[in-house]
Each structure stands twice: as structure tokens, then as C-alpha cells.
Amino acid sequence: MKVIINRDKLMESIQHVTKAISSKTAVPILSGLKIHAKETGIKLTGSNSDITIESFIPLEEEGIQYIDEIEQGEIIVHAKYFPEIIRKSPKDTVKIESDEQLQVTIQSGHAEFHLNGQDPEEYPQINQIQTDASFELPITLLKNMIKQTVFAVSTSETRPILTGVNIRAEDGQLKFVATDSHRLAASNVPLETEFSNFPTSQVVIPGKSLNELSKILDDTDEKIQISITDNQIAFQTEYLYFLSRLLDGKYPETSRLIPEESKTVIHANTKQLLQAVDRASLLAKDNHNNVIRLQTNNDQTIEISSNSPEIGKVEEELTVESIDGEELKISFSSKYMIDALKIMETDNVKIEFTGAMRPFIIKPTEHDQLLQLILPVRTF
Amino acid sequence: MKVIINRDKLMESIQHVTKAISSKTAVPILSGLKIHAKETGIKLTGSNSDITIESFIPLEEEGIQYIDEIEQGEIIVHAKYFPEIIRKSPKDTVKIESDEQLQVTIQSGHAEFHLNGQDPEEYPQINQIQTDASFELPITLLKNMIKQTVFAVSTSETRPILTGVNIRAEDGQLKFVATDSHRLAASNVPLETEFSNFPTSQVVIPGKSLNELSKILDDTDEKIQISITDNQIAFQTEYLYFLSRLLDGKYPETSRLIPEESKTVIHANTKQLLQAVDRASLLAKDNHNNVIRLQTNNDQTIEISSNSPEIGKVEEELTVESIDGEELKISFSSKYMIDALKIMETDNVKIEFTGAMRPFIIKPTEHDQLLQLILPVRTF
């Protein structure tokens, strides 16, 4: 194998695929990075037991020449040293060459590196998944839906299924939902076309996979193709192939959790509310659950407070847009509230309560595509 | 005590004094931050067993009003929560008030915090040190001398005296020197005036103190006053007072270590050499001592290389400005070389060798105020 390639373009691809590479792997060869030089360009691969990422660099793109010379072949390089060597190359182009003894020579300017490579034959075969169940989404939309839900997945392995985001296509909508059983985040968007071939089985993607995917994808309006089988999901753009396993198990029925009526409704400025909750949380941090209180007043204000007897207490009065319905005193985790308010893109939010001991809902005032639910804590 | 004060100015002072505050202290009251409101402004104090930092905020400075209202008094506040509360205050000014029950009320906009304070009577008295041995330096010069030496102090407590920077005034020069016994860094500047009262005892300042001082000082040409007693050193500007203990013990005589003659002299471009050494170090990192090799060639080039049999090897040929004297093959720690080259401000450096097993010297080509010495490693 031999390739003379643009350093920065190669570095970008390396950064994508190394997101899937772990030095702690049960399969030693997977701690390496695979380089596959073809006639049309080079493909890099990184993989672990959960995800596989492939990034392709074409000979040229939109008139920009990335690769000057190429001879076909494959090699596995050290995923710790190879990226550092490329990053610190003195010139804009690097020459990478491997021989039959699996020796890899990397040359740039007057610097010459010789790395011990590994046999590409030992690297597991990555098959593109075959399925009719595939659809397209704009990348910005996908990233947004991930951002609005993935923070709410469980970080505990007690119920592994809750560490993933559940994806469904129903009622003409694509639905993402995540819950750790104390709070829930849901994002729904109308489907442009009917997905008649969406899997009937449950699709639950590990939250970690979605976080990594989000980091790799640029914010563009280009579309990404999503294909699903019983146990895998693939995200594909022109030069990127991202494959994740799906979580096994039954995802809980979450729609029943969402109250259909409400007794107290508050409209508030998102940013003001977020900052007041953040301040109240300052003295609530050392409580393991960050509990703060919210209380409605008669004069279109709410009071947000917390109390840690050993340290001190905080009280803040916040003027809101409106308060309708019953008086309310409720306690909840400031962390969950901060997480929920941070991903609201609208200036104002609507909070719907059905009593101090019932879950409450936070929504944008302008639309219904986003819903956050938080379970209160009993303190009053 | 009561004060209505500009939030950002207060925050700046808090950030300075908290550098001296540790939550792990043998004297519990020192985990707090002291606020002392006087007629002329407020003084904040943070302290641990090594350093004490005082920062003063005057009522106004250069026409800018920092304090609107002040009532004299003292209080100790929680150094973890108080800074966070001020930082997240909703308005540009905050009101801080303490009562006889040591309750501290912090108010900004509609947010009101109540913190449990501590008794200022329990806080140790900080005395300004009394000495004739004091001199002034421009702040940028002091910061520069710290930067050029402090990285070379020892991080091991085997010989505690080596964890500090030795300061002397001799031969009409102010001299900073640091060594961990494997390398040495020295910075000398001509004295503007004679320091007849410079202490005859050894002055060794903990490296940690100098690092903290450097972080607090802005880069200005203003002067800082330095006062020294047998066991303490104070750095003072108009609004800052920084006090550090000195290290006890005998600092080694370092001047003998510096070779007076040389057998091989290389002039090289600082940046090119730094980058080549950095690249060679990539494959030498997992050796515990980062050893790389340097070899002179006959054609005004040097070869920098390293070899880790399990990973691979690297070789780079670097064209230098000149090579004079004997041929040379030498091995040394790339980390020490990188540290030394990073603080050279000049485009070119002069490296003076006296053989493969003798310490070598790195200097700027333009002047003699800066000297770095590195001990080689035996490999050839």
C-alpha cells in the first residue's frame, strides 16, 4: 500500500474513526486503525464492540486534490501513535507506505517514521447492513433531536435498556424518547414521507453511540441516510458510514407517563428561569439530589428557593409571563430542570403542573415538537 | 459589615485570593475567605500554610466607582459557595451584609442568599513583613524570569530544597536558578541599582508560590516591590499583597555545574529544532525517560532520532545554521529539551556540548541572560 495524501484532510478522517477505537478492547486488533487504499481513495476504519466508523477520502472533491498518488492495499496502524505522527508532520502532505513485513513508513519533509503495523487479514470484516427499512433526515434535524433527548438517558446499568434513546415512527411522526425513570425527554417531528418499512421491533440506540455520531457530523442541511435492522442501525453520508448496535430488551411504554390535563400552568422567560434555577441550585449541590422548591405567588411571580441548613439558603422572586390555575408548591431536582431548560430553543416556555406529587411538563410555547417531563420530589 | 460593590471587580479579587485557599487545611478557618471592609475599600484575604494573598478594592480607581456604600467590619465566608454566588449574581452590583450572628446576606436583583459565616476573630493575623531588604522589578520582567526557570524545579520531595527557585543578587545581577538535578534553568538580569541590603542567607521560593503569583499578575510594565526576610518573601503592588514562605535548607552550588569550555557548538533555528525534537519524542514517550538521540553530520545537518523496538522508530535530518568543532553523538531527554526550547524567545539558539557524557548548554544567540543546562543519558 502506498498513498501520498493531504495531511489536514487525513487528520480530519482520523479524528472521526478514532472515536470508535478504545485501547481497552477484548479483541486486540481493534485497538488499531485500519487503512484501506483503493483505486478511488482511502478508507479509514475504527471499531469497538458497540460502534464502527468508516471515513472515506476520495482522490479529489470539488476540484480539490486530496491524494496525489495511490497504490492499493490494506494495513492496520497503531491508533495511539499514528494520529500523533500525522498531526505533527512538518509538511502539508504525507507519504504512507507499507511493505510485506507490515512495516509502515510515514514520510513528511525530512522526517521519516517507521511503525510496526498489524496484519489486515486479522481485522474483522465490516459488512454494510442490508435492509429495506431506511429513510433520510437532514443532518441538522437529526443532531437537534439527539441533543434534545440523549442527555436524559440513564447512566446506570441497572436497566440497560434505559441507557438508550428509543426511536419510533408513528402517527406520521418520527419520535425520539429518552428516560432515566426520573425524567423524560421527547422530540417529535412530522415525517415527510410514510415509512412503511420502519421496523416493527423496538429500536433503542445506545446514548453513547448517538453522542459520538453527533460529534462527528457537521451542522449542514445535507441529508443522512438511516438504515435499521433487528440489531443494528447505520447512518450514512457520502463519505461517512457509522454503524451502531441496538440495545436488546423491551423499552417501557412512556406515553402513559405524560399527564393529559393540568392544574397549574406557568409561562416564563426561558433564560430568566434557567438562571434563577441555576442560582438556587448553588446551595443545593451537596444534597445528593439537588432539590430546589418552586412556589407560585398571587402577583404573577414565582419564588424559587433552596435550603441547606449547614451552608445557608437562597430565595429568588421571578416575575413570569402568566400563572393560571391552582396555587402550587413543588420540589424537584434543579439538575433535571437545568438540563431541560438548556435545550429549549424558544424565548418562552410553558410549564404544566398537575399537583405537587405528579410529574410536570416543560414545553416550548410555540410548538409541541419537544416535551420534557420531570418527576417531583416529596418535601412539602 | 455592609458593602455594595461592583460584581466583576469583586469577582476578579476573589479569583486572586482563592488561589491561596485549600479545602484541605489543618486550620479549618483557613478554608474560608476573609472580607474586611474599611473606610477606604474592602480587603479580601486567602491563606494556606505556604502563601497568603491579599487583594484590595478601593472605593474608586481612575474615576471608576467600584463601591457605592460601605460599613466597616469583617467576616469569613465559605470559599466554595461565596465565589459561585457572586459569579452568578443577576445584576452588576451586589450587596453583602453580615450581622452579629455571623449571618451573611448577599443580594443582587431579586436573588437573596443567606450564608452561614465564621468568626473573623478566629482568623490568623497576617502581618506585613518588616525588612530593609526590598527592591523593585517591572512585573513583566519578574514574570519572565519566573517562566524561564520555574519549570525546572524538582517535583519530588526527596530533596525539598530543589522544589524551589533560588534567587540571588551578585556581580551586579539578579539571578534566578532552578534545578531538579537532571537539568538546570538560569535567568540573570542586570540590576538597575545596588542591592546592598539583599539577604546574605539563601533565598529559595517554592516553585508553586511563583506559579500562583505569575497567574495573578497582569502583564504590565508597572513595578512590583519585593521584600525578603529570613523565612518569608512578599510581593506587593498597589492593590495586591502576596506573601510566601521560603524553603529551609542549603541550596546546592550550581555554578560549578556549568561547563566553561565547549567542544561542539551548534547554532539552530529554535522553532525548527523544537518541532523536530517534539516529533522524535512521539515514539520515545513510553520509555520512562523520553530519550532521543542527536548526531552531527558533515553537511551542516544534524540527525534527530528515537527508537522504541516494539512501536517503531523515527529519524529526521535538520539543516542548522552552523556546526563547529568535534563530531558528536549524544542522547538526552526530549522532555527537558522541549521545556528548554519553549521558553527561548529568540529565533536562534546556540547549543554548546563538551562531549557525549557531559552536561550541555542551550542559550539564546543574542544574549547571555538565559541559560539552560541538560544532563545527557548514556546510550551510545
What does this structure look like?
2 copies of one chain form a homodimer. Chain A is α+β, with helices and mostly antiparallel strands. Chain A has 3 domains: 2-122, DNA Polymerase III, Chain A, domain 2 (Roll); 134-255, DNA Polymerase III, Chain A, domain 2 (Roll); 258-374, Box (Proliferating Cell Nuclear Antigen). Helices cover 16% and strands 42% of the residues of chain A. Chain A is built from 6 helices and 28 strands. In chain A, the strands form 5 sheets. A 9-stranded antiparallel sheet of chain A has the order 16-13-14-15-28-27-26-20-24. In chain A, strands 8-2-3-4-19-18-17-12 form an 8-stranded antiparallel sheet. In chain A, strand 5 (60-61) and strand 6 form a beta hairpin. The longest helix of chain A has 13 residues, at 270-282. The termini of chain A are far apart. The mean pLDDT of chain A is 94. Strand 23 (312-319) of chain A pairs antiparallel with strand 11 (111-116) of chain B, so a sheet runs across the interface.
The residue ranges of chain A in which pLDDT falls below 50 over 5 or more consecutive positions are none
Residue share in β-strands of chain A? 35-45%
Q: Would you count the extended β strands of chain A for me?
A: 28
What is the chains' assembly state?
homodimer
> What general outline of chain A do the C-alpha atoms trace?
elongated
Q: Roughly what percent helix of chain A? A: 10-25%
Give the count of helical stretches of chain A.
6
Distance between the termini of chain A: 70 Å
Protein name (chains A, B): Beta sliding clamp
Family (chains A, B): Belongs to the beta sliding clamp family.
Domain DNA polymerase III beta sliding clamp N-terminal (chains A, B): 1-126
GO molecular function (chains A, B): DNA-directed DNA polymerase activity
